[in-house]
Specification:
The chain is of the alpha+beta class. The protein folds into three domains: about 120 residues, no CATH class; about 55 residues; about 120 residues, 2-Layer Sandwich (Heat Shock Protein 90). Helices cover about 65% and strands about 10% of the residues. The chain has eleven helices and five strands. Strands 1-2-3-5-4 form a five-stranded mixed sheet, with helices on one face. Helix 4 packs parallel to helix 7. The longest helix has about 70 residues. It is elongated.
Length: about 375
């Protein structure tokens, strides 16, 4: 970005210099200038101060005026004053303070130009003096006012968009709380009640009821956390620190899920940690819903600059299940893409495999790959 800006500034100087040389030759086409090097040098020197117009606006205009006055004494037909007028216009546009000082400097430049060129009555009319002294300042000030109004309008539009978004978030939070929260609470209460009534139930049934109550309670907590995030902004609710609890909830008599952690103990950004957890959660949910897997291996590897999570099972996905990309896998892809990672989903050595590689540092490009 900075390189492109330097290139544009260089092209501006070259273009203005070339234009001045061409205009001078055109004005003196019947008698070409005797000192072309002086013409080119003066045109370049009066254009170079334009490079400072953003950081030192008034200094840029004064330097251009000084060079222009020097060239005016040696090159009568040289239109260098046009560049100086543009420099004063840019000075008012980019300078934070009022245009009074710029107007005074521009007026002094006009008077000195009239003296160097000859008698003001013979060379410059009053209209010329007014146009040269006032027009650049007035134009720059008008452009600056237009820019400030446009920025103010943009800020108002953004504030209105933020307000509308906040209202939508609040409405969505209320709807989810009233519907999903109510049903999850009812499920937990019913499972707890049945578990108490069936005090002598087989261990498998008692464990299933306990898992239902625990899952509904955990889901209710997550819903409340997500609703808080909707109101206050996106935050990571859970992360890989809760991975063991997730695995314990989804394990069953016919399904063994293991967790293997490798790599170095490096810090992981909260957004990446949350995304990794959600990828594992969705992958395990798909295994429970659509696969006949009896063994599922969850691997978490932390390296320098990346976090890799892999979920591999030994089952076979049912038709219409894992082998067809649905909303769950598309959601995983979107989550991984937002943090600049890659996702590979497809058949593994003996079953199905989900592998997400997430960057934990800067400078990593985003992308997704389908398996």
């Amino acid at each position: 970005m900075a390189v492109m800006r330097y290139v544009r500034e260089g092209l501006l100087v070259v273009g203005v210099t070339t234009l001045l040389v061409v205009l001078t030759i055109w004005e003196e086409r019947s008698a070409p200038p005797q000192v072309p090097l002086l013409l080119i040098g003066s045109s370049l020197c009066v254009s170079l101060p334009l490079l400072l117009r953003r950081v030192l606006p008034l200094t840029s205009a004064v330097l251009s005026a000084v060079v222009g006055l020097g060239g005016l004494g040696f090159l009568p037909a040289w239109p260098g004053m046009l560049v100086t007028m543009g420099a004063f216009c840019a000075a008012v546009y980019h300078r934070e303070r009022g245009p009074g000082l710029v107007l005074a400097a521009c007026g002094c430049w006009v008077l000195v130009s009239a003296v160097i060129a000859g008698s003001p009555v013979q060379v410059f009319t009053v209209t010329d003096l007014v146009v040269m002294g006032v027009a650049p300042v007035a134009t720059g000030y008008a452009l600056r006012l237009h820019r400030e109004r446009a920025e103010q309008t943009l800020r108002v539009q953004r504030a209105e968009a933020d307000r509308v978004l906040a209202e939508e978030r609040a409405q969505l939070a209320r709807d989810v709380h009233d519907s999903v929260g109510h049903h999850l609470t009812a499920i937990r209460m019913q499972a707890t009640a049945v578990r108490r009534v069936l005090g002598g139930a087989p261990p498998v049934a008692d464990r299933a009821l306990g898992t239902i109550a625990e899952l509904s309670s955990s889901a209710l907590d997550e819903v409340r956390g997500l609703l808080s995030a909707l109101r206050d902004g996106p935050v990571g609710v859970v992360g890989l620190g809760e991975l063991e609890q997730l695995v314990e909830r989804l394990s069953g008599p016919g399904r063994r899920i293991t967790v293997t952690r490798t790599g170095v103990a490096v810090a992981v950004p909260p957004a990446v940690d949350h995304t990794a957890y959600r990828v594992v959660q969705e992958a395990l949910t798909n295994v429970v819903r659509h696969s006949t897997a009896g063994v599922v291996d969850v691997r978490v590897h932390r390296g320098r600059g990346r976090l890799v999570v892999t979920v591999v099972d030994d089952g076979v996905g049912q038709v219409g299940g894992l082998r067809q990309e649905g909303q769950g896998i598309r959601g995983m892809r979107e989550r991984v893409r937002l943090v600049g990672g890659t996702l590979v989903v497809g058949p593994g050595e003996s079953g199905w495999s989900v592998r997400a590689e997430l960057p934990t540092g800067g400078g990593v490009g985003a992308g997704t790959r389908g398996g």
